[in-house]
UniProtKB/TrEMBL annotation:
Highest classification ranks of the organism: Bacteria, Bacillati, Actinomycetota, Actinomycetes, Kitasatosporales
Protein name, entry field: Alpha-D-phosphohexomutase alpha/beta/alpha domain-containing protein
Record region (Disordered): 159-179
TM segment ranges: none
Any one GO MF annotation of this record: metal ion binding
Organism encoding this protein: Streptomyces haneummycinicus
């Protein structure tokens, strides 16, 4: 343990990164898409009263996707999180406004960030309503996408994830070590 006072900090208390960091991030996210990937998916997005909206909109724009339908009541940062009991997309009720907007607009996908935008949730149409995808389902979809794009190597999983990601990579000659 060390004193917090010993941790180096900028004179202003924080450092604002310049646009080159965001540009590099957006370039990497755009590079994940194949040139011939369709760009027609319609999306509803909620920032859950957090900071993810501007980066998501920039990523969609750069990649050529249609602008998502925003959950306006949750689009701007608000530390009081007035529309949710707890601002986590996995919490019961937190996605109610996003699902209502999806029912009204008929998108292909619903995307939500938690307030600091370090986690992302996705929901898909399931019959007549919407269903959140579990983390292992999203992982399996991402693994399948990478394998289809020719990725080779080892796909890792953790104790808390299921082995569903092993199905696609394992059949295509990629290793999937167990924890």
């Amino acid at each position: 343990m060390a004193s917090l006072a010993a941790v180096p900090r900028p004179a202003e208390g924080w450092e604002i990164l310049d646009e080159t960091v965001l540009d590099a991030y957006l370039a990497r996210t755009d590079a994940v898409l194949a040139e011939d990937s369709p760009r027609t998916a319609r999306t509803v997005y909620t920032a859950m009263h957090g900071v993810g909206k501007d980066v998501l909109l920039a990523a969609f724009d750069r990649a050529g996707f249609p602008e998502p339908v925003l959950v306006a009541e949750q689009a701007e940062p608000d530390p009081d999180f007035p529309t949710v009991a707890f601002p986590n997309p996995e919490e019961p009720g937190a996605m109610d406004l996003a699902f209502a907007r999806a029912r009204a607009t008929g998108p292909d996908l619903v995307i939500a960030n938690d307030p600091d935008a370090d986690r992302c949730a996705a929901a898909v149409k399931d019959g007549t309503d919407w269903r959140m995808l579990r983390g292992d389902e999203v992982g399996a979809l991402l693994a399948a996408h990478l394998v289809r794009r020719g990725a080779r190597g080892t796909f890792a999983e953790s104790i808390v994830s299921s082995s569903s990601s092993a199905v696609s990579p394992g059949r295509r000659g990629c290793g999937t070590p167990r924890p």
